[in-house]
Amino acid sequence: MVHSIDDCCCLWLYQNGGGTMANVARKKDKKITWKEIKRQKSLLIIAFFVTVYGFIFYYWPLTGWIMAFQNYKPAKGILGSDFVGLDKFKFLFSDAAFLRVIRNTFCMGALNLVTTTVMAILFAVLLNEIRSSLAKKLVQTISYMPHFLSWIIVTGILHDALSSTGIINDLLMRFGAIKDSINFFAHTQYFWPIVAFANCWKETGWNAIIYLAAITAIDPSLYEAASIDGANRLQKIRYITLPGIKPTIMILLLMNIGNVLNAGFEVQYLLGNGLVQSVSQTIDIYVLNWGISQNDFSLGTAAGIFKSAVSIALIVICNYLAKRAGEEQLF
Question: What is the rounded CA–CA span in Å between residue 23 and residue 323?
């Protein structure tokens, strides 16, 4: 999934030989002199402010992680609160509710990763096969629109469509698939597919952008040669398009594997209710309930640290496996 312009820029540099250019620059082994520093003064000043900004807003807040090892009290502050060691982590892993939200978060995150990735690739490939430039631009523009809708609007649409009197129940009864309407939000077996569908509907068009960019970078002469050899459209997709975007797929998978535990907060919080609470609660909701609702900031911080540690471990392990398999890797 593409989450920001930074992701797009990194992948563009990667696809267009960024690594090669860096190697050439290293080979030159240019010495840093005061003359060069003065010449690059403007860039260095900008880089300084960006570094300070990153330190203040990205790294300095990590000092708050010390709360996970304290019985933190806002009145006493971080320096005055009592240290309790790993007691908060011990409580987490002895709490059946936390173990359940780990299962929910991982399963929903994995399901979202697989479905959104597959749908984005499929949509990008199909969109690339549209011959009419006007129709292609129209479909592409329409597919972007759900990305800019807030989750409160998306969940509202889902509630209306899947309610007992909604359009989904109406269509199912009209076609004879069911006799009585179904309350989809009262049965646990429907909740994860609903969340996966909501993510696919909202993000497929946006996620397909980078795959479309990768497809356009494929040498057109490969398609011309395949046409001369008598290949049809499906064969071109199988033997040219998909292998051509394979490096992009691998890099995006590695980038997004760390987001498996970021299964979401808004959609689960807004769609969940007491009837499906056993499958709708995620780590983020658990942190909200304990860290804010019950003022146990230490426990909420410990849960957040656990999620971050697992995300980093997943990225490192998957990157190592990709390296062993000879595939593209992040580092």
Answer: 20
Cβ atoms of 98 and 110 within 8 Å: the answer is no
Helix (H) / strand (E) element for 254: namely helix 242-257
Query: Residue 144 and residue 142: Cα distance in Å, rounded?
Result: 5
Hey, what are 207's tokens? 């996620």
Q: Give the model confidence (pLDDT) of 7-59 as tens digits.
A: 544 444 444 544 443 443 444 456 778 888 888 889 999 999 999 999 999 89
Residue type, 136: K
The segment(s) of the chain belonging to CATH 1.10.3720.10 are 86-324
3-state secondary structure of 125: helix
Q: Give the integer Cα–Cα distance in Å for 2 and 206.
A: 7
Quote the crossing angle between the two packed helices 242-257 and 188-216, to the nearest 10°. 130
Query: What is the architecture, at CATH level 2, of domain 86-324?
Result: Orthogonal Bundle (1.10)
CA atoms of 230 and 236, how far apart (whole Å) = 10
Does the model's pTM come out above 0.90? no
The whole-angstrom separation of Cα 75 and Cα 295 is 12
CB 145 within 8 A of CB 205: yes
For residues 8 and 210, is the Cβ–Cβ distance under 8 A?
A: yes
Taking the CA of residue 230 as centre, how many other CA atoms within 13 Å lie in the half-sphere pointing to its CB? 0
